């Protein structure tokens, strides 16, 4: 205890004015902690927003969704007994301005009188929704998204044709409380009254229509109990029933995934910063060697000295972590403003303690993991050196206990990463990757330092000095390569992955992607549809397939809720899936197991299934899958497995039934149409939607642009966080330059005394930093390329091609930044007058 | 009663060029209260001998006993405590802690020993070296002479049995150096402290009761004087004129 007291006293005194020598340390730590705290806080704020506004987002205490069909009368009666009910019907439809030719795909929502149960639907002119939708002079009203008003040049009073019916546009929607929380949609919203729906002619058997029943439960009824009771009452209902605890499950999953990913990128920044922390601690302790030796000489034990300096490091770390946490805590406020337009709820401000505490813990653990080594080594300084003019910092490894303590803190750090990401597999992969890359860079750096030592001395003195500076004792070469290299590797890998993905998209889409998907074609319209499409010049290909939606309820006889499936295929059991049937294998079928059924098959239901999803379910040929189709359960045996090429954007179905099962179910037909010119694309869309008011056309380019927007948003987030990693690397480089400053001044003065011109000295420095930047870039380019290759070929299963400009630009940028920073740091060394320094020697 | 007893002391260090013999069989007894100057050319082993006596360097072989402590058998931390309680050291380069005030620099050995009145004693010690008015100054606000006086106050504040001084005037001008030496000798006498001093200055050495000459890791001459200022007498009782030269 007394030792702790004296250590505290020494720490307090030693900290006087020392904070300024910790600038890089503080910046590295604040940056990493801010990134992690910010990501965590924003994600928590979004989740809190969903939770707070759950009833508004869901549209009721309970939401029940049916696909293709309405609820059975006894079910509706039960809903009405339980509370107040609002009904909405959602589907895709074509909308056109009544007196114009322009048309577009919209997301249509027909709402009953009680809508909305919770929250308010805000209109730009401030009217009430039900008033605006009501019939006036025999014409129903419609309210539309601002995007549709712009696209079709609509103003209130204009007539809008949807299906067979005509509506008067009454206002523009400012806020729709229960609009599904997603970053993309297939079209702008049009809202009409439920009473008008029959007039549109859009409700046809098998059309892709979703009927929603929103229930505001009577007082005293608890959501969870009601759900349990209702599921027991109607065990085979085949609906999707959600309470407020699952108001936005897809959004929750998305946020969780992005948060996990960004947390790991933030952790990378913190790890890169950790190298800077280790350097800063070492540089600080090197400057304190005489003091440490003096204290030991005056009777301080190694433990007292270690504790005193450990306390100082923790105290400084607290400042950096505090700054990082403050920035992170403010992030929800800033992010809330930036993304408020994309979400139907407000992102609440306030403090989110859990992510802040986690980020703080990461900050302290990183500090400890990276400072124990230099601290342990500094404790070994020999007091006897006080009798010499030059006190040399101890080199090599610290005592075993410090190595063990460093290892323990690294393990705890890894454990926290697993807990924080809540995904042991992902975190484990990250940790293994991080350790691997650290080892690669550490080893690579050592090789380069040794290589520089073995290079025969060049004749040019400046080049000789530059190379010697790379390998002299105490040179920062290894740590700069490690830290700047890590940041650069992330950049190179991301640049390569992006280049490959965009190349693949560009290469594939024009050749094979269809122009349009036409949905909701009725079986009796098929002949007319074919005739219409074939009459348009420039149509090269058309495919059709029947489509009915169904939900998986059992896998191999086990209810899906009780079955564990691979997270990668979880999406297939979260909602409705498209089902089709075929007598013969669809073109391009790649069977990997089992046989295709005979074309004239008749017998018990058989299923052709996707091989990868089957693996995710843990089933194979011969196992059964039970689906609920329009309220009926169908159990089919998996007869064969196929590989599906999702990138082809053609008609790919996870479920293909053998003939004899789905034909009788009400279903519609979807068709893909391939056109060879934009004119043909436009013409076929007009021809089909003119003739069939109930058929909707989804433009593939629009869908891709939608996907592209999501990719862009995620890409920006990735690039921002990758830049944070690089910034941490640059900070480490700056730290190395600063800590070498005194030595550079000394070198410059001695060289000038010996007759070197400033230009000569400057050339030597440019060469040194140029060499350092160049080797760092080369190592980063190599490792980044390997990572990019693994991600593209193994994770994304694509073809990898090396993108020279992406890598060369990144490498050149790195070299330039190293030289620039190096020169900024050494400029003042060059202008140093020799006399004052020599007088002090 | 010998405060320092060295017997057949050897110290060898490994270097890139092979093993270097720094100390080669030193035998030395120093009685409590003696003032001993060690002289000799650079590389003779003077500083190393002082480091061994201060427990800062471990002998390769031979016996090292200081104030009844067998230093060869002590751990690094035990040696730190030994120095704290028994030894004061004054360096040529002062070695003050730059982030501590003069008072804190003097108090730190007492604080390390857990003394409750560290600051009162430190203030008194600073007063004795004539720096009572400089207590709140940091080392870089003091002249070289003042810094060395702070170092002396620090060395004496724990009332050590042994004071080791390595060229204490080496970084000071002549007049300041003289003042410092007077202070050192005076305080040693007042406290009854045994003083071991390394110096190149023969005039300074003559102030000691004993002058030991070293060369090439060995003691080549050991001269005791009856009183300060009296002729220097070697171990065999002969007056050593070479030392005067």
Record field, number of beta strands of chain B: 11
Describe the largest sheet of chain A: 6 strands, mixed, barrel
Please give the number of β-strands of chain A.
21
Give the spatial strand order of the biggest sheet of chain A. 2-3-8-5-7-6
The separation of the N and C termini of chain A measures 42 Å
Quaternary organisation: heterodimer
Mean pLDDT of chain B: 86
* Sheet/helix structural class of chain A: alpha+beta
The strands making up the biggest β-sheet of chain B line up spatially as 6-7-8-3-9-10-11
Percent in helix of chain A? 40-55%
Strand content of chain A: 15-25%
**Unreliable residue stretches of chain A:** none
Task: State the share of residues found in helices of chain B, binned by percent.
Answer: 25-40%
Secondary-structure element pattern of chain B, one letter each: EEEHEEHEHHHEHEHEEEH
Overall outline of chain B: globular
Outline of chain A, from the CA principal axes? elongated
Number of helices of chain B: 8
Helix/sheet category of chain B: alpha/beta
Please provide a written account of the structure.
The complex is a heterodimer of chains A (841) and B (245). Helix content of chain A is 54%, strand content 17%. In chain A, the strands form two sheets. Chain A has a six-stranded mixed barrel with strand order 2-3-8-5-7-6. A six-stranded mixed beta barrel of chain A has the order 12-14-19-16-18-17. The relative contact order of chain A is 0.12. In chain A, helix 1 crosses helix 11, helix 16 packs antiparallel against helix 21 and helix 16 crosses helix 23. Chain A is of the alpha+beta class and 841 residues long. Chain A is built from 25 helices and 21 strands. The mean pLDDT of chain A is 81. Chain B has 245 residues and is an alpha/beta fold. Chain B has eight helices and eleven strands. In chain B, strand 9 and strand 10 (218-225) form a beta hairpin. In chain B, helix 3 (102-112) packs across helix 4 and helix 4 crosses helix 5. The radius of gyration of chain B is 18 Å and the shape is globular. The A-B interface holds A 2, 6, 9-10, 13-18, 290-291, 293-304, 382-384, 386-389 and B 47, 50-51, 54, 56-57, 76-77, 80-81, 83-85, 89, 91, 93, 95-100, 104, 108-109, 111-114, 154, 166.
